[in-house]
């Protein structure tokens, strides 16, 4: 697929740490509106890949384009967030001493990027958007609950809601199901599918049951490059994937 029509385009991206290639000629294209799952063994380069996309790490070589034309390599971390690349880290970060509603309100009003404490009068449109987000993140009945009282899974959903409040064009999500109960994991897959109806999403995940339930194209990373790509059934049938990923 052409770079111009992609939401995210990586071509020949390499990063070395003290001579060790964490990313080695990594190329990948994500289409607008696509949800992609990234899998791979520990050390495959998944985190480094998220870091180069979000400007946390600068690649040694290669090209990274967002929305077809925006060269991300020349942008810093704050500008990349402002451009509409939202990143959800593994650990939930919500304002524990504020209610669910206030967390969403804060995120809606804050400029993209690091969240600032900006409470203003909330317009009707903003209230409707918060209502929509509450329903989407399955926390409609928790709106007045302090974030501190939410379960781990609910905090993850709240943070996803806060990221969505900032209206990203691309959402990067790191192991959303880690530490969740089975029921929360299943609900998170449904939540991400709902989000993918209106957003481009990249999900890094270890839990294969979870990846299977997403039912999306999978990219397998190994030693900093793409080893295989396709449906989970397709990549699972690839002997090289079985060897490196499943350790058989
Ligand atoms: P994954 O997320 O797939 O487990 P990472 O991207 O975290 O993989 O790491 C890829 C490789 O790069 C690993 O071998 C890791 O030790 C190495 N690495 C990552 N970040 C650094 C760093 N800041 N300094 C040195 N080595 C690093």
CATH homologous superfamily classification of the largest domain: P-loop containing nucleotide triphosphate hydrolases
CATH topology of the largest domain: Rossmann fold
Number of helices: 9
**Biggest β-sheet, characterized?**
6 strands, mixed
Overall pLDDT, averaged? 91
Please give a structural write-up.
The protein has nine helices and ten strands. A six-stranded mixed beta sheet has the order 6-7-8-3-9-10, sandwiched between helices. The chain has a four-stranded antiparallel beta sheet with strand order 2-1-4-5, covered by helices on one side. Helix 3 (100-109) runs parallel beside helix 5 (152-165) and helix 6 packs parallel to helix 7. It has 248 residues and is an alpha/beta fold. The longest helix has 14 residues, at 152-165. Adenosine-5'-diphosphate (ADP) binds next to helix 1.
């Amino acid at each position: 697929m052409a770079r111009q029509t992609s939401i995210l385009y990586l071509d020949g991206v390499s990063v070395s740490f003290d001579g060790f290639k964490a990313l080695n000629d990594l190329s990948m294209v994500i289409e607008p509106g696509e949800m992609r799952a990234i899998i791979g063994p520990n050390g495959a380069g998944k985190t480094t890949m998220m870091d180069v996309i979000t400007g946390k790490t600068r690649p040694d070589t290669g090209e990274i384009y967002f929305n077809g034309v925006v060269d991300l390599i020349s942008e810093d971390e704050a500008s990349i967030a402002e451009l509409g690349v939202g990143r959800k880290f593994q650990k939930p970060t919500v304002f524990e001493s504020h209610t669910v509603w206030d967390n969403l309100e804060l995120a809606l009003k804050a400029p993209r990027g690091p969240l600032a404490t900006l409470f203003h009068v909330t317009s009707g449109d903003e209230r409707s958007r918060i209502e929509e987000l509450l329903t989407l993140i399955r926390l409609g009945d928790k709106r007045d609950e302090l974030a501190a009282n939410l379960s781990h899974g609910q905090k993850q959903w709240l943070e996803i809601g806060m990221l969505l409040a900032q209206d990203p064009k691309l959402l990067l999500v790191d192991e959303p199901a880690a530490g969740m109960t089975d029921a929360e994991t299943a609900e998170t897959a449904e939540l991400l599918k709902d989000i993918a109806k209106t957003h481009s999403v990249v999900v890094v995940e270890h839990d294969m049951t979870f990846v299977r339930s997403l039912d999306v194209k999978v990219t397998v990373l190994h030693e900093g490059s793409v080893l295989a790509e396709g449906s989970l059934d397709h990549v699972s049938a690839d002997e090289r994937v079985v060897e490196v990923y499943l350790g058989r």
